[in-house]
Amino acid sequence: MEVQSPPWHAGYRNQSACRQVSSSRASVGVAYGGKGLKTGKVGRAIRRAVAGALPDFVPPQLTALAETAPEGGEWAHELKWDGYRMHARIDGGSVRLLTRTGLDWTDKYAAIVGALLALPVTQAYLDGELCAVSEAGLTSFSAMQTATDARSTEGLVLVLFDLLFLDGEDLTGEPLRVRKERLEALLARAPPGLQYSEHHLVSGFKGMHWERVASEAACLP
Question: What's the rounded Cα separation, in Å, for the pair 180 and 183?
């Protein structure tokens, strides 16, 4: 089944405007359903074996559905990929693929692990979506599930949209636009199986025609 949605669905990963103060990247998910604005906390308790070490697991910041895209040029809009949310933890010659709940699915996706090992990094923690992508660039959740169940996952793609840690540097306090720039540079010569998720800095996502969009405040952590 190809990506489908009602006329407009956007997921906000951060509700705050850039002129407001945000103390944590775990701030709030937003949804607008016609009856008012609803907010809810999203936890970001980072697990580490040793203080200052690369995290074992970072609970993902989740989106909430909304009927309209946020206004203002401080928002970064990107395609909402239809797949499994997946974190990639690289530490030396070791790679772990972690689900949104922290399950270790590394053994399911050997080709993705190989692609991550080819990146020019010693340590990294990346956030993305594991997808089956057609030649037309569309994602199919059912095709991704079928490939996983059949253990025929060589053609899947890990679409990466955030970089939280890189070679000993904690980037979680940096604005999203800075992390995206660092991620894009890292993936400039990415091997097959890895893809950078592009974003657009436009007010309300006008002029674009994607059906499912994720929006974040680009100047906040």
Answer: 5
